[in-house]
DNA sequence: ATTTAAGCCATATTTGTTTAAGGTTAATTA
DNA sequence: TAATTAACCTTAAACAAATATGGCTTAAAT
C-alpha cells in the first residue's frame, strides 16, 4: 500500500516485521528479536528503529519492553481490527430484510472502514449485475446509507424487495440500472436506497 | 469434561485489567504494572497470574516480557473467529512472492475455514480471468496447496511469476487456461501450483 | 483437626531488554 | 571536497521484568 516512500527498503522490511510479529503474537517484538530475524546486531536495530520512529511510522515507549506501536493500518490488535457482520439472504417481496431469521451467517471485515454497525452483507440472487462482475450467489458488503452517487452500485428496496443495481442520476431523475442487457432499467417505479455496495466477495467451492 | 474452572472475584478483576490494558496499549501489562494497579506486591501478582493460567484464562510465555495472551474461554467469540492474512502484490518474474516487502496490507477472514497460516491473499493484475468474473485489482484468497482438481482456479508459478488461471486436467496432461479468449492456454510450459483460490474480494471505491 | 486454597508480604536472583557511546564503510548530496 | 546519511559493528552499563523462595493469615473443605 504505497507506504509513503519515506522509508528506505530496509526500514520498510523492519517495519513489516514488527507489524507481522504483532499480529502473530499478542505483543510486539523486542529489539533483540528484530536483530535475530535480520541477522544484524542490536546497535543496528537501534539505528533503524530510531529512523523509522523519526519518520513517524512507529511510536516508541521509552524504557518499556516491547514498547512499540505501529501507527498505520495493519496495526497491532487483530481483535480491534475485525468485525463480524451478518449476511442476509435475498428476500422475497414483503419480507423484512433485517430480520434475524434471514441471517445466513457472518463474514469478517476490517473495522474502522467506518464506524459501527453500519455494514451488512447480502447474498445476491440472479444475473442482473453479471456484466459488472457480480454473479448469482456472490456476497456483497453494504454500507447503510439512504442516498448514493451516480454510478454507485447500491442495494435498493423496490416493492419491498431488496435488489442490487447501479444507481443512475440525471438532472431530472434518479433510476436503477441492471448491468445485464437482458434486464431493462427501472425508470418509473419508486424505490428506496438502503445502502451502497463497498465490497464483493465470492466463495469458490472448497474441496 | 474439564469445564473451565471459575475465576475468583479477584482473579477476574485482574484478568479484566490485563484485557483492558492490552486494548488500551499495543502490548500487555507487566506483572509490576498489575501490582501497581491493585496496590499489591509482585509476589501476590505471581500467585494470581499463576492461578488464572492454571484455570486456562491466559497463556503465559516464560521469560518473556509482557508475555501474556488472554484466552478467555467462552467470551470473546467474535475475536477468536477472525484471522488476519497478508495480501501479497502481483510479482514480477523472479521476485519471491512471499517476501515481506511484498505485503500490501491485511484482510480478515473467518478462522477455522482451515487450520493455520495456510491462507494468503493476492492482488490480481491483468485481465486474463475476466470471463470468470475476476478483474484487475481484485483480491483473491488462496489456500496453499501443491495440487488441485480439474477446473479449480489456482495460483501457479510460471517462469517464476505468480499467475491466476484455471487448472485443466486431462488423462494425458495438466495445463493452465485463462478465462479470456484473448489469452491462449498454456500448454507446454512447466508450472507449479502454489494454491487454490477459495474466495474473491473486490473493493468498490468508497466515497 | 488437619488440609487446602486464596490472598497477601518481602527479598534476592536471574534473565530480558533497552540505552549509551564509541566506531567503520560506502553511497549520496551540497 | 566536505558533509551527510544509511547500514553496519562492538562493548558496557543501566534498567525492566520474570522467576525463585519462603513465610504469614484467614476461611472453607475433608
Describe this structure in words.
The structure is a homodimer of 207-residue chains. Chain A is an alpha+beta fold and 207 residues long. Chain A has helices spanning 9-24, 31-38, 42-54, 78-81, and strands at 58-60, 68-70, 82-88, 103-110, 119-123, 139-144, 153-158, 161-169, 174-177, 192-203. The first copy, chain A, has 4 helices and 10 strands. In chain A, the strands form 2 sheets. An 8-stranded mixed sheet of chain A has the order 4-3-5-6-10-7-8-9. Chain A has a two-stranded antiparallel ribbon with strand order 1-2. In chain A, α1 (9-24) packs across α3. The relative contact order of chain A is 0.11. β10 (192-203) of chain A pairs antiparallel with β10 of chain B. Chain A binds a DNA duplex (30 and 30 nucleotides) through α3.
Question: Strands across the major sheet of chain A, in which order?
Answer: 4-3-5-6-10-7-8-9
Number of strands of chain A: 10
SSE topology string of chain A:
HHHEEHEEEEEEEE
Structural class of chain A: alpha+beta
Largest sheet of chain A: 8 strands, mixed
* Radius of gyration based on Cα positions of chain A: 23 Å
Give the chain pair forming the largest contact, with residue counts. Answer: A-B, 56 and 52 residues
Mean pLDDT of chain A equals 79
In whole angstroms, the N-to-C terminal distance of chain A is: 32 Å
**How would the global form of chain A be characterised?**
elongated
Oligomer: homodimer
**Count of helix runs of chain A:** 4
Give the uncertain stretches of chain A in residue-range form. Answer: 1-5, 73-80
